[in-house]
Design a protein that fits this description.
Length: 280
Amino acid sequence: MRQKNGQNFLIDKNIANNIVKAANLKQQDLVLEVGPGRGILTKIIQSQVKYLIAVEIDEFLYKQLNYYFSLHDDIKNIKIINMDFLKFNLDGLQFSKTLRGKILQQNSFKIVSNLPYSVGTAIIQRILPLSFWGVAVFMLQKEVAQRLIAKTNSKNYGYISIFSSYYAECKVLFDVSANCFKPKPKVVSSVVKLMNKLPNSPELFFFDFVKHSFNMRRKTMLNCLSSFKNLGKRQATDILNSCKLDMSLRPDRFSTSDFLFLTNKIKHYIASTHVRIGFF
């Protein structure tokens, strides 16, 4: 069993069917699959949709999949790409405004993937900001799934929790035992479903500030804010007071909406006081 890129291949067909079923695929759907591996999901998805794009980093697995589908001359609705998805040029998926509107209206561009454990979070961060997907179903490490759905004042709550909640509604559907894979991973997996919120683009420094704050998660928000781009304690105090937010609380007590409100106040404070800060 090849494991060049650390793959753990799903071998349970019932689980595979349940993952695909969660995406509620329609005949008119376009689907992106990241890391198809040996194709247990790919073969199910291809038979149910209008078109499937599968991006596989492993050349051997890519050739195996291509060979399998080449044996079926009647299959014309799949394109397999041999590439690291994190380097994949997503411009090819940037549809025209008219087509994108139609896709979103029909909720017909979907993403279904068994994500590699090592890069699952990075792939999610690349996909969620895209505007043309409607539904995504991912299988990933349970620990990562719990971070995606974590709420304030919990140990799993952090940057990725806010990132995912900003872009999508996320829920865990079910767990998957290590026995469903070959080779068996040392962790439990979870299947999550995300629905695109189609939000407006956040302030340029919003996620920078969230990440900075959770890098200092044991500090108070006053300390986090005052050290962000050398803002300073006096300015940070003024901003927090104007927000009516408790400056003694730690970052994990602040919700996504709190961070959005706070960054908006930072922007207006800088504009009104003409303070020169690194991100302006």
